[in-house]
Amino acid sequence: MGQINCSDDMLYEKKISEKDIFDGRVFKVKVRQIETPEGKPSTRELVFHNGGACVLPVDDEQNVYLVKQFRSPFERVLLEAPAGKIDPGEEPLTTATREITEETGLTAAEIEPIGTMIATPGYCSEIIYLYIATGLTYVGGEPDPSEYLSTVKMPLAEALELADKGEIEDGKTLIAIYRAARRFGL
Description:
Elements: E1 14-23, E2 27-35, E3 41-49, E4 52-57, E5 63-71, E6 76-80, E7 83-85, H1 92-104, E8 106-118, E9 127-138, E10 149-155, H2 156-164, H3 171-183
Parallel strand pairs: 4-9
Antiparallel strand pairs: 1-2, 2-3, 4-7, 5-6, 5-10, 8-9
Helix pairs in contact: 2-3
């Protein structure tokens, strides 16, 4: 039962056991048996993910570069900031640098961290590192062989309006747009 203003120590679960269910290319799934803070047994189904990096390219005229990509779980195309999964042992900034070029054909003179986001803390360990890229130069890109996407250039103010109207739904992209808008005074 919830308590108001209790210490964090009163909220911790005790791990009793854990079983590997799936070990895939992108994530692992485990089932964990726990004891709740009040001593009752329960089960947690958990996804362990290496994390990702999301980078919002912003040019000198405050245009942003987003990508349209089909997303299988939703069976439709979403508008997103360039992003990708972090390879084992890779730094998030390296991922962001790679993804901006692969997905938009751009390189950046500066890629600045703007925080992180925890996508779905109820069952998944994924942390997404967020960046703004500036000082852009077009060099040509080459998406992964299984990636099909198109780049969309628009004013940051328009992206902010689409976000406010619910037309951009991807969480990492929303946070990146809102933080960029704040940084650029919109």
